[in-house]
Amino acid sequence: MTNLFSNCSPNMSDFTCLLEWVKNFLPHSFRVQGLDQGSSWEHLSLTPLNGDAGFRQYFRLNTEPSLIAVSAPPEHENTPAFVDISLCFQQAGIPTPIIYAVDYRKGFLLLEDYGDQLLLPRLLSEQLSFEQSSFDTVNELYQAAETELLKIQQIDSNTDIFPHYDQQRLLDEMNLFPQWFVEQLLGVELQDADREILDKTFSLLAESALEQPQVVVHRDFHARNLMLLPDGAIGVIDFQDAVIGPFTYDMVSLYRDCYIRWPGDYVSQRTLGYAKKAEAMGIIPNITEAQIMRWFNLMGLQRHIKVLGIFARLWLRDGKAHYLGDLPLVIRYTMEQLSASPDLKAFQHWFEQRVLPQLSKQSWHQPWETAGD
Predict the structure, then answer these.
(1) Fold of domain 136-370
(2) Is the alpha carbon torsion for 145, 146, 148, 152 positive or negative?
(3) How far is residue 229's CA from residue 95's CA, in Å, rounded to a whole number?
(4) Cα(79)–Cα(109) distance, rounded to whole angstroms?
(5) pTM for the full model?
(6) Distances (CA, A) of 308 to 175, 194, 237, 241, 313
(7) What is the pLDDT of residues 38-61, one digit of tens each?
(8) DSSP H or E segment with residue 358
(9) Which of 217, 244, 255, 369 reaches 20 to 30 Å from 163, CA-CA?
């Protein structure tokens, strides 16, 4: 990996600046598709790819083998953290894209191309026949993902690389829900009594997260951030927000994925099976199944409350409308997790009285009761 600074002129567009940077720092072992080794880069081009929920922009280069160029605006994205965590993950044997060059000042990166085979489309295709199948393929895919997650959770909790997922961060995330989802998206005006219920709920969820064994947490370990590699392994991307946090957080992201839903019994089976693997590897001490599932459900509630706020903000602030279609499944998860948490009856009643009646008024509305089926 090379740390190289761009000398783009002020009047260049970001796209042109990125292309010029790539031309200057592309490793000589690569060549433009269809041209001989050592040819000039005048035929080099960048093809935009679908982005993620952040401000990063991705482009595929017409090189052999192909590469990915990334523009990650420094005012919004933490490129040094991306690089540090990538190197840490690779040292732990976790497949992440090789970083060939980086410009911290501009937020430019040149990465190995993992292709287009996300885990999600494969799981969705298997979901169509899930009830009739032996689940073998689905199990194999999740086992491959679990292999990488177990490696992540065994990484040393180095606070120079991974910040703590502390109480304030947990609360700040959940407070995106009343601000962006309840007030701005649904148009519900919150009163003092509403905020008191929310504050008590959020405090309980944060306490549950903090009492769990603390491990390295990817924070977005779901099927849109896991790649199917040619050798059958799972490649891990979008890891720059990793922290030291609750053991069950990435399990929730994986098994109660905001983009695909599995039957509750299957989720419980995978959750408890994973916990047994983690215990055998010394990641967690011996913990009862009841405690694991309580942590898992409350962690899921924290994550999905946060996600409701984030998806609303992605539309209202950033104009990313496609996340609205994922809200009904997140609401379904929220209701299911509340049903499994008797000490949150007050919040469940509040959600049923203040949130659910507003959903049918939304353009993105679909029955949450069947979302993901």
Answers:
(1) Aminoglycoside 3'-phosphotransferase; Chain: A, domain 2 (3.90.1200)
(2) positive
(3) 9
(4) 8
(5) 0.92
(6) 10, 17, 22, 18, 9
(7) 556 677 888 998 766 578 899 999
(8) helix 356-359
(9) 255
Neighbour count for residue 110 (Cβ, 10 Å): 27
**Which of 186, 135, 143, 117 shows the shortest CA–CA distance to 363?**
186
Residue pair 182/188 in contact (Cβ under 8 Å)? The answer is yes
Low-confidence ranges of the chain (pLDDT < 50): 9-11
User: Please, is 55 exposed, middle or buried when counting C-beta atoms within 10 Å of its C-beta (0-12, 13-18, 19+)?
Assistant: middle
Report the topology of domain 2-112.
Answer: Phosphorylase Kinase; domain 1 (3.30.200)
DSSP per-residue letters across 46-61: EEEE---SSS-EEEEE
**Sequence-ordered strand ranges (E) for 169-287:** 214-217, 226-228, 234-236, 243-246
Q: Where in the chain is the domain with CATH 3.30.200.20?
A: 2-112
Q: What is the pLDDT of residue 11?
A: 42
31-32 and 63-64 strand pairing = antiparallel
What is the Cα–Cα distance from 219 to 239, expressed in whole angstroms? 7
| Burial of residue 205, with CB atoms counted within 10 A of its CB: 0-12 exposed, 13-18 middle, 19 or more buried | buried
| DSSP class of 177 | I
Closest CA to 71 of 82, 87, 85, 63: 82
| Residues 142 and 223: beta-carbon distance below 8 Å | no
DSSP 119-144: HHHHHHHHHTTTTTS-SHHHHHHHHH
Whether the upstream peptide bond of residue 357 has omega within 30° of 0, thus cis, is no
Q: What is the pLDDT of residue 50?
A: 76
Q: Which of 363, 301, 318 is nearest to 52 (CA)?
A: 318
pLDDT at position 292, please?
Answer: 98
Residues of the chain with CATH 3.90.1200.10: 136-370
Give the pLDDT score at 166: 97
At residue 18, what is the residue type?
L
